[in-house]
Amino acid sequence: MTATIDPKAPCDLCTLSVGTKPFALVTPQRTFLFCCEGCKGIYQMLYEIKESPDRTVDN
Ligand SMILES: [Zn+2]
């Protein structure tokens, strides 16, 4: 556990609850939480958000 995540927290795009395994988008300003990869991708596209490069991506 590195962060406190509320499973009832709303997705930053569609406002559905993000569940226990949210898709996080870490930016210098704040961390966005999304319910799915799609919401995260759309949000990134809409706001041209660049994910912090120091984040480990295991894909
Ligand atoms: Zn969503």
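qc> The chain is about 20% helix and 15% strand.
qc> done
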